[in-house]
C-alpha cells in the first residue's frame, strides 16, 4: 500500500462555495474539486488539471489552507476504504474565468452529476465531505484562524 497525495480547491465567491455534486446508492453528496497527484506532477499542476476535468475550467491557485489525512479504516466508510490512505492539500483558489458557467464539464468524475455553489451559511445542511472541514470553511469565511494540519478527519 502507498500514501496518495491529492490537491483540492477551496473556491469561495459571494459567500458561496463551489463544490462538485455526486450521487451514489446512498444519495447526494458534495466534494471539493480536485484529485490525485500523478507521478512527476506538482500539486499545483494536479489541481489545475483536476479543476479543468471536474468544473470545466482552470483555477488560479493561492495559499495552502489545510492539510487533511484520510485513513479509510478509521472512518464511516471503513468497509469500502480500509486500504486507502490519502493526504489532501486544500488551496485557496479563484476561477480563472471569474465565474462558473453552470454546465457539467466534458470529463466529470465518476458519479458526478453537477457543479454547484452552496451558501456557506447553509453548509451544514448538505452532505459535504470531509464533514469536519465544514467547520473550518465557516471560520475561513469569518476570517478566523484554523490550523493548517487537520489530521485524520472525515
UniProtKB/TrEMBL annotation:
<dbReference type="InterPro" id="IPR015797">
    <property type="entry name" value="NUDIX_hydrolase-like_dom_sf"/>
</dbReference>
<feature type="domain" description="Nudix hydrolase">
    <location>
        <begin position="1"/>
        <end position="146"/>
    </location>
</feature>
<keyword id="KW-0378">Hydrolase</keyword>
<protein>
    <submittedName>
        <fullName>NUDIX hydrolase</fullName>
    </submittedName>
</protein>
<dbReference type="Pfam" id="PF00293">
    <property type="entry name" value="NUDIX"/>
</dbReference>
<dbReference type="GO" id="GO:0016787">
    <property type="term" value="F:hydrolase activity"/>
</dbReference>
<dbReference type="InterPro" id="IPR000086">
    <property type="entry name" value="NUDIX_hydrolase_dom"/>
</dbReference>
